[in-house]
What we know:
82 residues, globular, mainly alpha, 3 helices, binds heme C
Amino acid sequence: MMGSNASSASASKANTESPGERAFHQNCSTCHGAPSPSEHTAAEWSAVVKNMEQRMSSYGLHVPDHKTTQAIVDYLQSHASK
Ligand code: HEC
C-alpha cells in the first residue's frame, strides 16, 4: 500500500521540523535546554556549535557527524539574529 497518507511524498515543505531543527533539538538539549537560534548571529553559530561538540566529546556523549552538524548550523544560521 502506498501513498494514501501523504507523508511519504518526497521532501516538500516539512510540515513540522526540518532535519536540521530536529537534529538540533536532539543534540542540543542534553546538557541544557535548547537555546534560541536568535541568541547568536549566523557568524557566531558555527563557532558555538564547534565548542559544544568539544564538550560533547569530553562528556563522552555522542558527537553528531559532519552532515548532521552542518544541518544544525544551517538551521541555527537561518534563524539567527542576523
Ligand atoms: C555536553 C553537554 C552540552 C551539549 C550536548 C551542548 N551544550 Fe551548549 N553548553 C554546555 C555548557 C556546559 C554550557 C555553559 C558553559 C558556557 O556558557 O560556555 C553551554 C552553553 C551554551 C550556550 C550559551 C553560551 C554561549 O556560547 O552562547 C549556547 C548558545 C549553547 N550552549 C548552544 C548549544 C548548541 C547549539 C548545542 C548543540 C550543537 C549544545 N549547546 C549542546 C554544554 C553542552
